[in-house]
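pinned: reference chain
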Amino acid sequence: MTTPLRDSSAIVLNGAALSALPDGSLHWPARNTVIVADLHLEKGSAFARGGQMLPPYDSRATLATLATVLTRLRPHRVICLGDSFHDAQASDRLPSQDRAQLARLVAGTDWIWIAGNHDPAPPPDLGGSVHAEWIDGPLVFRHQAEMGPRAGEVSGHFHPKASVQTRGRRLSTRCFIEDGSRLILPAYGRSTGGLSVWDPAISGLFPKGFSVHLATGRSIVRVPKARLLRAA
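pinned: its structure tokens
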């Protein structure tokens, strides 16, 4: 009989008490900060230009979800961990309604853009400040995890996902992955794909083991490494 999984959003990272949220964002209550990774705004329009049709309202859906969590938590600061835009021209393709929504969100907080590989310089007219990385107390925020021990590192880039068998069914979804020292966030964007936590690009960053926190959209479920299915 498979042991039922329990909801668990609490993450202690290098001494900082964090909370993983079902929408894929991270909350740091002590700093009144919300962190998100890899929004990939206007990914749909980028693929459409190449002849591959994706749902055209990915940016609107992503921003609506983000607006909901920011309205509820009312953070002082928001940190976007890079690849907020899918490419260098994505902000130009952003529909005026969505651009206005994003501008309102940025204006309401101390907004930190971390430069990503898709968007090394988010557009300055939207507000906020751009940084290669951001350090706050015990935590360092960057786009991509660096090899070797990195105490307190919070990053995105890899779009981690994981699978587990529970209650007679297979649950496969995006996830947070951490070992108490470093943490990788799931992609926040609506049309982003995912990479299995078993891929060496991710698992190689956690040589002593890891836990994942599945973001189901309704809850956060912590799963130890031993419970994960190999195929995500």
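why pinned: The chain has one domain: 10-227. The chain has five helices and 16 strands.
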